[in-house]
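Lay summary

Proteins are chains of building blocks that fold into shapes. Our project writes down both the chain and a compact code for its shape. Here are two examples, one after the other.
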Amino acid sequence: MKIALVDDEVLYLKKLKEQVCSALNKLGIDYDIHSFHSGKEFLDSDKSFDLIYLDIEMPIIDGINTAKLYRERHNKGLIIFLTNHMEMIQSGYLVNAFRFIEKNGRDDKFNEALQSAIVTISDRKKELITTIDGADIVLEHEDILYIEAADRGIKVVTIYDIFFSKEKISDMRRKLGGSCFYQSHRAFIVNLNHILRYDKRDIYLKGGHCALLSVKKTNEFKEVYYNWKFQNL
């Protein structure tokens, strides 16, 4: 796991690093951790991270704007905001924050947020292997937007490219298992991570993409989607 810690308070940053390292060592998680003393320093590194602890209240560039600028460059990375003022939570949802934790708050809250992040990151890092033009390719789950049944096979649409395979969509659903994917229609499998909104017949995904939602599956989809969202709050 690549982890970034961003806070302008030197003593708190040191304490945070010790806390994160201690928890990860107990869990047996391999990690690469980097500390930054400002939002500018963090952005200047121009690196992508799996997990980012980000102080909301910082001079020059605060945590919210730092997150916005980071998201413009990097799609990956869970953001856990650090704050002494929990009333600022609402602003964080504009940048798809994963969690908010209170500085110097309870250890159980801190540990729960970290463990939930590990589970989510592990799920996103799962890989799908499919055969295209006689060669096996590996796609990370988090890069897949949706899969659509196509002529004599399937179309796999990712955040960076589109691939065509001769596999059946039913076989693909079995491969994906009980992860962040849902078969919304006999011809579509969508990644719950990339859903922006939906209506009675369509599911709208990032990048301007749209997948079909079966009328018969509307209620089931809502239950699955909101349960998944609740687990990832």
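And here is the second example, written the same way.
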Amino acid sequence: MPRQILTSVALLVPDYDSAIAFFCDVLGFTLTADIDQGTKRWVTVEPSGGGVSLVLARAVGARQIAAIGDQAGGRVWLFLQTDNFDRDFTKMRAAGLVFEEIPRDEPYGKVAVWRDPWGNRWDLIEPNLV
């Protein structure tokens, strides 16, 4: 039987370097690739605990530029799992990230919605141990 794995998700950003700085300096992601391809770069970042990487895709043209921060039509579409919600929530707020709500407890864990610098909506989640 074939085996498939989702390894990456593309995220439209206005600029490679500011996106790298945000993900690596603010969130603590690791820069896993930055390859010059002439007119564009292949840039990937990965959370410190591993998982799916983000391909930072510099938006080109009016359609892609208009989609920055709204790739999911206003829904939360990126989910950052943590082993310590309070630590990361405090660090992220101190870095100026905007949380749309106070943290809440759900059956699946502690969660709060936040926005990255471009307006994408994320969940910060510490799952309940089962």
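What can we say about the second shape? Strands lie at 8-13, 30-36, 41-46, 53-58, 76-81, 98-99, 104-106, 109-115, 121-127.
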